[in-house]
Amino acid sequence: MYKAIDKQTPALEKYIDQLVKEGSFKTEEIDEMKTRVWNILEENYAKSKDYRATSKEWMTSSWPGFKSPAELATEILPPFPTGAAKETLKHIGETISSYPPGFKIHSNLARIMKARAKTIETDSNIDWATAEGLAFGTLLLEGKHVRLSGQDVERGTFSHRHAVLHDQETDRLHVPLKNVGHGQAAFSIHNSSLSEYGVLGFELGYSLVNPNSLVLWEAQFGDFANNAQCIIDQFVASGEKKWLQRTGLTMLLPHGYDGQGPEHSSARIERYLQMCDDNPNHFPSEEKLSRQHQDCNMQVVYCSTPANYFHALRRQIYRDFRKPLVAFNSKLLLRHPMARSSLEEMSGDTHFRRFIPETEEDKLTSAEKVKKHIFCTGQVYYALVKAREQNKIDDVAISRVEQLNPFPYDHIRDYADKFPNAEIVWCQEEPLNMGAWAHVEPRLRTSLRETQSHAGKEIRYAGREPSASVATGNKKVHLAEEYAFLSEALTGEVRKPSDVVGGVPVF
Length: 507
What we know:
CATH architecture of the largest domain: 3-Layer(aba) Sandwich
Number of domains: 3
Helix content: 25-40%
Distance between the termini: 78 Å
Shape: globular
Strand content: 5-15%
Mean pLDDT: 94
Strand order of the largest sheet: 4-1-5-6-8-7-12
């Protein structure tokens, strides 16, 4: 084979002969071009011997005004409030719940828009999609470009977003967020094909160019990110460490156990947490606590309120640096009557809450008599609260870890001592070998080591048993598993319900 190749005329020579024969170039012109290129190569080779590269040359864009990785490693940057003016929120709320006169939308959608408008008017019961729209709208008015892509993102896979409206008679389109105010930034929302690897890769590249754009990609179901795992592993989780490529890319992953099939139940929280790079065995110093977000490779949140989701999105833009955000959004909480927020929680000096502790409003017994303090994240919180209420339990406190990475070590330390005699429990709806347990267990232990009353205590797990499959897919089995871990979390043992009232077990 090598002898046969040696006998071939090189492709360049063949091409030169063709160009000369057809009269496109003269031989002298080609020789001159060859000499010029060769001299460029020789000159730069000579320079390379004394050349010292700088980190800036690795960056896709220099991002003027933003802190470099080197500066982030030495400075402590202040956090900024992410609330917006209430008048602005009301204006945007009215805009995203209305449409032009004569525009004929579907009758079911008309009812949804009317209900959305009422929540804005009454400043209460604001749901997930409305809070998201308020976050997008405020950023647009503040001159920040917002871009969202993914399968069925215009409507929302679970028929909740409705960012693009269709006239039922003319098929004319109306995008409310393109009409929030004069001089607003561009709003781009696009349904994509089932090509997660390609689409997420494109959005990652888009996010590298302009830090003042909120760039989001949403998986139709959380597990759809499987097909983009290469992008996540090699570029989202490790791009800054490997190549100094900073990004504020936001990934929205639907998650939650609702008794449906395995592939649509979980966004594989455990995979993302496994790629987080802090040391779980060392409690951060005060300086390290103040710069956790600067030092982390990416943020992972599983919010339980629309307001916290609102702040998580706006926080992506209102910083002097950028970090990837993986946001798990519960499908159940999109319409859950308890998962509601007010404009008050999104206005003024409000901000994202990394940890939401049990409050006095929950009518517990005295703090000293609380027997169990349950920590959890996401939608399982509401199942626990409803079961606690249904069973008239007043000696169990329930607190929410809203941000799984960077982990809120300081909040766990500060609030665990509020219930000094309580057993510490972690409750999750995922199986033992999945979910957040492997990530939070050593970090909870490290945090409790700093407390007055819980140092050295064991942390009890309450959740599904280990499983090869994400979920059973059988509703009856699913509920039996749920009732089991709820009773174990609240009472300390697995109890079969004596009754089920409104979907809530009575032990």
